[in-house]
Amino acid sequence: MQKLRLRYAKRGRLRFTSHRDIARTFERALRRAGVPMAYSQGFSPHPKVSWVGAAPTGVASEAEYVEVQVVDRVDPEALRVALDAVLPPGLDVLEVVQSSGGTLPERIEASAWRLELPGVSPEDLTEAVSALMAAESVEVERLTKDGKKVLDVRPAVVSAQVDVHSSDAGHDAGDLSQPCGILMTVVRQTTPTVRPDDVLSALRVVADLVPPVPAKATRMAQGRLDDEGGLVDPLALDRAAEV
């Protein structure tokens, strides 16, 4: 039995698709591509597909991960091409590697996010980010199915800075005459999970920063934190083992 690890992107309108629907789409794509999937035992066998976290609905991502097990050996690149051909545009398989052992979740402890805030100037965003990073604790309210809960966002935020090179250009707001602050932040995957909208709520708490239109969040990377606060690619060990 062979275990393969996939990195895929969730782009464009597909960011509004729930994880459950994405999982169903992937399973249909595996069947259509003729992948020799391994199945669980029991009365209701299901393909051995393991999801490693999931970006929230409404959030785009360039770094989502899933593991699949097959009963016959397949070429990782051939699998990537075959799956990508049958998945809808916006759900794109970027890389497939063979597992070198261990578990993928143990290689992931944080995410790097890109938050676009149309209508917010880089200067105002910089001031808000400075206030956030200077605070020891920033509590925000999150509405859950069990009611409102208070969450301390600050301990999860490893780093946050304004991308001055990308601000004011190329955003999705449509009106390029309006400013667009872009926040790059690394956030630990704690329990409960601190989501991009929680970081935005924290900016509102510390600096009364409220974007005039909804922000766009994109997960750019996942991995373990290195000594400099960067992220180690979770597939790096698998790639190295293939050489």
Fold blueprint:
Elements lengths: L1 E9 L8 H14 L16 E4 L7 E11 L5 H11 L4 E8 L11 E9 L3 H13 L4 E6 L2 E6 L4 E6 L17 E9 L7 H12 L8 E10 L5 E2 L3 H7 L1
Parallel strand pairs: 3-10
Antiparallel strand pairs: 1-3, 1-4, 2-3, 5-9, 5-10, 6-7, 8-9, 10-11
Helix pairs in contact: 3-4
Task: Explain what you see.
By secondary structure, this protein is α+β, with helices and mostly antiparallel strands. 23% of the residues lie in helices and 33% in strands. The chain contains five helices and eleven strands, in the order βαββαββαββββαββα. The chain has helices spanning 19-32, 76-86, 122-134, 196-207, 236-242; strands at residues 2-10, 49-52, 60-70, 91-98, 110-118, 139-144, 147-152, 157-162, 180-188, 216-225, 231-232. The radius of gyration is 20 Å and the shape is elongated. The mean pLDDT is 92. Residues 3-196 form the DUF2344 domain.
Helix/strand structural class: alpha+beta
How many beta-strand elements? 11
Rg, rounded, reads: 20 Å
Shape: elongated
Please state roughly what percent of the residues sit in beta strands, choosing from under 5%, 5-15%, 15-25%, 25-35%, 35-45% or over 45%: 25-35%
Overall mean confidence score, pLDDT: 92
Unreliable runs: none
Order of helices and strands, N to C? Answer: EHEEHEEHEEEEHEEH
Annotation field: number of helices = 5
Helix content: 10-25%
- The separation of the N and C termini measures 21 Å
**Largest sheet geometry:** 9 strands, mixed
Domain DUF2344: 3-196
Protein name: Radical SAM protein
